[in-house]
Structure formats: C-alpha cells, structure tokens
Amino acid sequence: MALFIEKPLAFVWKDLINEVSYKFAFFMQVCGILVTTVTFFYLSKLLGEVGTSYLKPYGGDYFSFVLIGVAFFNYLKVSMDSLSASIREGQMVGTLEALLVTQTEIPTIILSSSLYSFIFASFKVAVYLILGAFFFGVDMGNANIMGAFLILLLTIVSFSSIGIISASFVMVLKKGNPVNWLFTNVSGILGGLYYPVSVLPKWLQKLSAMLPVTYSLEGMRLALLKGSSLNALLPNIAALTAFSAVMLPLSVLIFGYAVRRAKIDGTLTQY
Fold first, then answer.
1. Cβ contacts of residue 80 below 8 Å, gap of 6+?
2. Dist CA 20 CA 25 (whole Å)
3. pLDDT tens digits for range 178-207
C-alpha cells in the first residue's frame, strides 16, 4: 500500500517543484481566471434575457451557466494535455525510455503523470466557483455536493480515457496528435460549453449525445445550480459510467500497445 502511494506522490512532488519554479506563470493563470470571469459576467449583462427559455433548466442565468461550463471544461483540457505533454517532455529530455523500462506498471505511470495536473485543475475550478459565488452573485446555496462530487469523479475517469488515447498517438507519432485537437474542439462546440445543447439542430444534438462532456457539464450545472437529486442526475451518471467502463480499459490497452510498438521500433527516445 505504501509503495502504491509513494510512486504517485513522487510524480506529484516532481511536478510541484517544476511548477513553483515558474511563479509568474502561476500568477498569470490566476489572473486569467479573473479576466475570464469578468468578461463573461459583463457579456451576460449584455445578453440580458436573451435565451432565457433555453437556460431555464439550469436556473435561467447565463453567467452561472457559462461559469460552470468554463470551470469544469478545465478537466477536459487537463485530460487531453497533461499525459501527452508528459510523454512529449520525456521523449525530448530522454527520461521516457528510462521510466518505461522500470518495474512501474503502465496504469501507475498513466495515473501518476497526470495527478498533479488534476490537482491544479481542481484548484482553478475552486477559484472560479469562489469568484462566482462570493463576488458575482452565483447562487449555489442549494447545491447537491454529493451529486456534484460523483459527477466529478466520473468526469475525470471518462475524460482521462480520451487523454490516454491522445497520449498513445504522441507515443507513436511524436508531434502529431489528431485526437487532442479533434476531441477538444468538437467537445467545445457540441458539448454545451458556452450555450445549451438544446440550441443546436437536432442532428447535432445526436452527435452531442455521444460526447462525455455533454453529460458532465449538464450534470454539474444541475447539481450545483439547481440542487438536483441523485435520481434526477441518474441519466448523466449512467452515461458517464457507461463511457468510463468501456473507454478506460480500452484506452489503457491502446496505450500499452503504443508503448510496445515504440519499444520494438526503438523510437522511445526519438522526438
């Protein structure tokens, strides 16, 4: 048990040391959260009552709607970028091959390489929510915390599976990563990030229903803004659970295949 915890903590400590060495970059990220929040707050003032009928299931307020979307979309970005960036860095500095020939199992490497990024993403989400609740009047007084936490766990698992597949492409193709670009952009357009999925044409709504981000953002909004019960959140929970159950083991298999192929080709250190 101690060994199981020790390795992930070592990865987190390594990433933390690297992060704190760039204090200005950290400061700019926090400033970026503030700028984004203020921008959408005044944009919501400009829009006024426009689109209220589409926003009614989420409380009717556009700023609250988009704040939750922008905040929790961070988990998708982290899922798609963190492991891929870690693999790419390992290729360029020559540490990837040394890591992959150790006795550390692939699932442990996958989990540990992304752990700090998810912790930092959670910090940024907390900043968004605190700013929204205490400075911009977002009402989360009736939030279903347990439901939101369950949606969050399933969100991280389901998003991570796509991120692992994305990292597999980096392992083999080095610089080319079509999964990252395609999935992030499609999710942003169809997943309800800036506007409800219900504004989309019916045929695009069907495509949206195939994306985990759709159920994640909707579930988070219902749990935090409406205080929806676990029963009401069940469709989103079920969809994320099904996606995770299928895609997570599949993504680990794909990543394992990518590692074996890179070892056979002798391209682990190539970049």
1. 159, 162, 163, 166, 179, 180, 183, 184
2. 9
3. 777 788 889 999 999 999 999 999 999 999
